[in-house]
Amino acid sequence: MEISRSYISPNFDERNTPINALVLHYTGMEDFASAIYKLCDPTVSNRVSAHYVIDERGRVFSLVAENKRAWHAGVSFWRGRFSLNDCSLGIELVNRGHELGYHAFPQAQMASLLSLARRIVAEHEISASWILGHSDISIGRKLDPGELFDWGYLAEGGIGFLPPIADTVDNNITNITNSRNRRDCSFDDLLDDLLTSIGYAPDCEGRVAAFQRRYRQNRIDNVADHECVALARALPQGWGER
């Protein structure tokens, strides 16, 4: 895959932590030019950057070297670790985002992302549980890459894991019912425990919606139910963790 180095961002610092995470974003800007300008602008107070940008035609641009710490994640948390900039690589996908006209990600863009992600995951030995969306690690603050992002396409290509809703719910409904009877607890209690064990920041308003935006994109209502519990139960096994 050809990677352009036509644009270099000055917005980075030294990396002192090994890479173990990949974080996916959308740019949330009007167009490619606006996104590049923002990601390479050294004059603003909230300077941002990413290691890679992929435009809607599938062209890949390297803005920050992987051995440097780009500023893409901001305030973030996953699995006990704060400030995911320290340990992650960030990929920005050109998309106007929820505020400017969110739309599906073109196939050419997704194909380039899959190719790039495969190389990154293999080279840095990133586990499936550390392939993340910005909304996973910055709950309530970020929505990207959002409910139109095709996580299933990446999973089919060997990047991450997406439980199939129908099969997962059918296989887990008895266990879910038994858990509720034994513990006399609600779906809220069950899902709350599961989301914490998966890696989401505890005690965050909107983390059920963040989970749904990633794993049950057809209904994002921030309400715990049997589908959400079944999907959350399936993740560790799909990640190869049990």
Fold topology:
Layout: E1 3-4, E2 12-14, E3 21-26, H1 32-39, E4 52-54, E5 60-62, E6 68-70, E7 77-78, E8 81-82, E9 88-93, H2 97-100, H3 107-124, E10 131-133, H4 134-137, H5 151-156, H6 165-183, H7 187-198, H8 207-215, H9 226-238
Parallel strand pairs: 1-5, 3-9, 3-10, 4-9
Antiparallel strand pairs: 2-6, 4-5, 7-8
Walkthrough of the structure:
The protein has 242 residues and is of the alpha/beta class. It has two domains: 3-156, Peptidoglycan recognition protein-like (Lysozyme-like, 3-Layer(aba) Sandwich), CATH 3.40.80.10; 165-238, no CATH class. Helices cover 38% and strands 14% of the residues. It contains nine helices and ten strands. It has helices spanning 32-39, 97-100, 107-124, 134-137, 151-156, 165-183, 187-198, 207-215, 226-238, and strands spanning 3-4, 12-14, 21-26, 52-54, 60-62, 68-70, 77-78, 81-82, 88-93, 131-133. Strands 1-5-4-9-3-10 form a six-stranded mixed beta sheet. The longest helix is centred in the last third of the chain and has 19 residues, at 165-183. The chain is globular and about 55 Å long. It starts with a strand and ends with a helix. The mean pLDDT is 94.
Please give a handful of descriptors for the protein shown.
single chain; 242 residues; alpha/beta; 6-stranded mixed sheet; globular
Summarize the entry for a quick read.
The protein is built from nine helices and ten strands.
Assembly level: single chain
Overall structural domain count: 2
Overall pLDDT level: 94
Largest sheet: 6 strands, mixed
Q: In which range does the helix fraction lie?
A: 25-40%
For the record, the CATH class of the largest domain is Alpha Beta
User: How does the overall form come out from the CA principal axes?
Assistant: globular
Please name the fourth-level CATH homologous superfamily of the largest domain.
Peptidoglycan recognition protein-like
